[in-house]
Specification:
The complex is a heterodimer of chains A (82) and B (260).
Chain A lengths: L1 E12 L8 E12 L14 H8 L7 E6 L2 E2 L4 H5 L1
Antiparallel strand pairs in A: 1-2, 1-3, 3-4
Chain B lengths: L1 H18 L2 H25 L3 H20 L1 H12 L2 H6 L4 H9 L1 H21 L5 H29 L6 H15 L14 H6 L3 H11 L4 H36 L6
Helix pairs in contact in B: 1-6, 2-3, 3-7, 3-8, 3-9, 3-11, 4-6, 4-8, 4-9, 7-8, 8-11, 8-12, 11-12
The chains are: A alpha+beta (82), B mainly alpha (260).
Chain lengths: 82, 260
């Protein structure tokens, strides 16, 4: 089973007032198996923190699918956190 | 869940200790509450009406504690300002016991304030209580503060979205409660249309109960009012929990759950 499975993940921050919306993640896909160790590199604003926030259920994806150990972060957040 | 409440409680006690020490609580907070209450109560004295004086005394005993319990509005938002809110959200346990654990210490502040004001006013104005009246007065104080805490939790859940508004909400709610729930202005003064709304406000029924106890009315009637006050506490706390859950889900969707 995959520890992390991300399919076409998109996360958009809606702008407030005159601010334009910001695309934090645009079509990210990745799979990480249980026990694997990876680094996450990228410049400021690349979306590293946004990705981790979606994985940890702080933020909901705007589009795409994310599951942790087979549990969907949108449908089963309590199982992801357990 | 119990553990989460206990951890929240320990944090709440530390909040309280960082806010007050015994000197600032006694000679800052309590003295301020007693003197501001006295200025209002003395209006009753100036009117030369014992009934008005008594009405304002009882009203101030209850409402002074409620203002203390309303600190929970601010305490409910502190997790947002500390940046611990998202961490509580993603914890395996429920967020609500932790928030209640942290903020309920302010309900105890409210109870302690009301009891202290009752003692001080009794000494100054010679209020006399039978054992039953005193027991019912203390029960009224506890329930008024419980329901005010429930209301503060509800308001705090709403204000968590806009934490910068917490002090405005705290101060204006204290004044609104004093005006509408029968502490300083008789409920009969307000239009009848507002009656149902006033009866949903915290401390309205506790005030009726305490006034009824002082007038030695039937204990059953007093018990019914105290029962209503308990239900009002449950109503507001339940609404607060529902709003907080909604805000968390909305915050996860629009990103507002993050650091303020």
């Amino acid at each position: 089973m995959l520890a992390i499975d991300v399919q076409a993940l998109r996360r958009v921050y809606k702008g407030h007032g005159k601010q334009k919306e910001v695309v934090g993640l645009d079509g990210i896909s990745l799979q990480i198996g249980a026990g694997e160790i990876h680094g996450l590199l990228g410049p400021n604003g690349a979306g590293k923190t946004t990705l981790v926030k979606v994985l940890s259920t702080i933020l909901l994806p705007s589009a795409g699918q994310v599951s942790i150990l087979g549990h969907d972060v949108v449908q089963q957040p309590k199982k992801v956190r357990a | 869940m119990r553990h989460l409440f206990a951890v929240g409680w320990m944090l709440g006690v530390e909040d309280f200790k960082s806010f007050w020490n015994w000197r600032s609580w006694t000679f800052g907070w309590l003295l301020r509450i007693v003197t501001s209450g006295l200025s209002l109560v003395l209006v009753g004295k100036l009117l030369g009406s014992a009934a008005s004086l008594h009405y304002l005394l009882i009203g101030n005993i209850i409402i002074s504690g409620c203002i203390g319990a309303l600190f929970a509005v601010m305490a409910t938002t502190w997790n947002r300002l500390d940046g611990t809110y998202p961490l509580l959200v993603i914890a395996p346990a429920n967020l609500i016991p932790a928030v209640i654990g942290r903020s309920i210490v302010w309900m105890l502040q409210g109870i302690a304030t009301s009891v202290a004001v009752l003692l001080i006013y009794s000494l100054i104005f010679g209020l006399k209580f039978s054992a039953l009246q005193l027991a019912l007065a203390l029960l009224s104080i506890v329930l008024a503060n419980l329901s005010t805490y429930g209301f503060a939790f509800f308001l705090g859940a709403l204000v968590a979205r806009l934490p910068s508004m917490r002090s405005v909400v705290f101060n204006s709610t204290g004044s609104l409660l004093a005006a509408f729930c029968g502490a300083a202005v008789p409920i009969s003064f307000w239009p009848e249309a507002l009656g149902w709304l006033i009866k949903l406000l915290p401390s309205t029924h506790a005030l009726i109960a305490m006034r009824s106890a002082m007038a030695e009315l039937e204990v059953t009637r007093i018990a019914i009012e105290l029962g209503y006050e308990g239900l009002i506490a449950l109503l507001w706390a339940g609404l607060g929990a529902a709003i907080m859950t909604y805000m968390v889900n909305a915050g996860r969707a629009d990103g507002s759950i993050q650091f303020e």
